[in-house]
Amino acid sequence: MQKKEAISLLTSLGSFWKQHRSALYGATLLFLAGIILAFIFFEPLQAILQQTIENLIQKILPEDTGTVDSLTLFRAIFLNNLQAALITLFSGFLFGIFPVFTMLLNGLAVGYTLKIAAMNGANILLLLSFGILPHGIFEIPALILSAAYGFVLGALVIQSVARLFSRTGERTLGWSSTMRALLPNVVLITVLLLIAAAIESTATMWLVQTFVHTP
What we know:
By secondary structure, the chain is mainly α. It has one domain (19-60, 69-211). The protein has eight helices and no strands. Helix 2 (21-40) crosses helix 6. The longest helix has 41 residues, at 124-164. The radius of gyration is 19 Å and the shape is globular.
């Protein structure tokens, strides 16, 4: 019975995102745009992005404890990413504006990291392959899902407000199906971030130290 329920849940989730795939495309494009912008406008954005990344590191590991064990790092990464994802998702109720900045900022952070690494002589392909993709293939989709769901919520809020000032409108705006998809999406995002944090706190650290070198 549990297996059937899981399959049904995944099927309904797939149907939901098939209906709202434009939100997924939008979140993905914003992330990629952030990466490109970090390269194009590196100098004017450098101070801001450097401070942002330093604040993020300090938030994850606020104390200088020297060598941090994998479990502590895993917990810190997971909780920080989960908090960011949930804030992004639920901020969609505020007209879907915040998820736009979230995806741009994440893209900018990745682009800035790649640019800095390239300037220091690191091999970008190696950094992508061993420093970002191992955990990024789980973490980035989770962030995209949270932002895309935020876009869906934002669109519904805007449509609902518009209906208040319109005499005609659609009978249903999709609130029911969107709310039914909330818990499955949160569960999926949480699982993806758990896997990503487990990889980043163990395998990614080892892969970077082993394969990514700077002169």
